[in-house]
Fold this protein.
Amino acid sequence: MSRSNAVWIWRHPTLTAGTPPGRIDPVSLAQIQYFVAVAEEGHVGRAANALRIAQPALSRQIRRLEDELGASLFVRTPRGMKLSESGHTFLGHARAILERVRAAEEAIRTRPVGAAKDGADSD
């Protein structure tokens, strides 16, 4: 069974002019983690260092996320990046998504051995 790290985001019709209403695009957990890191650091270079990835790759992923969401999440300035109104809105949701994923992983890791009742984990 392959594992996907995509999260499906419903596109709000008023945020994505020209896109069919209700269209869903995949957003990866990595993109969400990258967004949160840039938001917290306020600078792509510092976020890239913290994430241990190349700055151009991080910039591309942020642009791709903005394209997929149909909204600009940051205001670019000579001194770094500041969250836009859409970015502030998305940040709370992004943190909640990451926290729920962490909680789900922890629940799986800490469950007793043999706790699966449906046989789904009998690989």
Remarks:
- The domain at 6-97 is CATH 1.10.10.10 (Arc Repressor Mutant, subunit A).
- Residues 8-16 have pLDDT under 50 and may be disordered.
- The chain has one domain: 6-97.
